[in-house]
């Protein structure tokens, strides 16, 4: 008998971390000033698209994206 669930497991810690990080990043980007938001949204959309193919790489890029957002003194 074939396994009906060939995709990722629902209790995958890596995917959970990615989902929580994407949620937090989207909320953070939506709070940015209108002049900065489009550029940061494009970066975040690229990470979201990457998550469809390589969750581990997307998580690393998301963590870097969030660190850059936090460290940028020009972004409130």
Shape: elongated
Helix content, binned percent: 55-70%
The total beta strand count reads 0
Give the radius of gyration: 15 Å
**Approximately how much beta-strand content do the residues carry?**
under 5%
Distance between the termini: 55 Å
What structural class do the secondary elements suggest?
Answer: mainly alpha
Please, how many helices?
3
User: Unreliable segments (pLDDT under 50, ≥5 consecutive)?
Assistant: none
Largest sheet: none
Question: What is the chain-wise order of helices and strands?
Answer: HHH
- Average pLDDT across residues? 86
Overall description:
This protein has about 80 residues and is mainly alpha-helical. The chain has a domain at about 35-70. It contains 3 helices and no strands. It has helices spanning about 15-30, 35-50, 55-70. Helix 2 (about 35-50) runs antiparallel to helix 3 (about 55-70). The longest helix has 18 residues, at about 15-30. The radius of gyration is 15 Å and the shape is elongated. The mean pLDDT is about 85.
């Amino acid at each position: 008998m074939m396994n009906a669930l060939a995709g990722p497991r629902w209790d995958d810690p890596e995917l959970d971390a990615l989902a929580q990080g994407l949620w937090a990043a989207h909320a953070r980007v939506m709070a940015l000033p209108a002049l900065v938001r489009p550029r940061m949204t494009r970066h975040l959309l690229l990470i979201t698209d990457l998550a469809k193919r390589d969750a581990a790489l997307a998580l690393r890029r998301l963590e870097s994206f969030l660190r850059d957002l936090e460290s940028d003194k020009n972004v409130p």
